[in-house]
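Morning!

This is the sequence you dropped in the shared folder:
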Amino acid sequence: MFGDSRTGAAYVGGGRVLLRTRNGFKMYVDGRDVSIAPHLILDGVWEEWTERALLTLIRPGMTILEAGANVGYFTLLMAKAAGSAGSVHSFECDPDLATLARDNVEINGLHRVARVVEKALGEKSGRVTFYRTDRHRGGGSIVAGLEQIPHNPTDQRVPLDVEMTTLDDYCAANSIVPDLIKLDAEGAEPAILRGSPKLLASPRALTLVMEFFPRFVRDAGDDPASVLQGLRNQRFELNAIDERRRRIVPATAQWLLERESSELILRRS
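The structure's back. Tokens below.
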């Protein structure tokens, strides 16, 4: 038995730990992971500030796209918030994590709302090399030059050949018009945005929730300032999550560029 009475975590074999999150979801995690799993096993929660922000943004009936589902913690949260009239399409190209995410959706009875798509998202459709991290399972990326050593010094990056699509191609093929897009793709966010020109040029209201590491953006060969300016050119307002105060606050491009990382909330009304 692992964890405490809050999570009731138990090892169930095959490297899996079954637990209950603080907000009531049943979840399988990889007990060998040293990034997200320890927090869920012991505390039953992951990135409370992001969770709180998402719950203020999502309304019943919304259509949501997610890049980087991992084991599906936010997939479950968003599916429950969107409700039976909504839909969540979560992309995860690591086959082991995609399996965990699918199982987590199923055991929580959310399979009619949430779909886990085992593909990478990027600039164009086709095949791509995904670099899976062996210990910090949330650190995998399609960015070949991503340098995460200061954060994950013990990880080995294992290349996998995976299928990739774009948000524009996926939405066109499935007749989807998203209300909210969540991007957490370890430096691939600018490439995903470049693969979404139709979505970004649409006059419809849209909210982007996006991890923004200026160093990761540079490792991917992009200019962080240009990424922010491109979003502003598409009429997105710059906001960020204040982790300490657990609230969404206005942000300037300069402030975001000076920080090591931020969780952006970009809204176009």
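Headline: Residues 1-45 form one domain.

More detail when I'm at my desk.
O.
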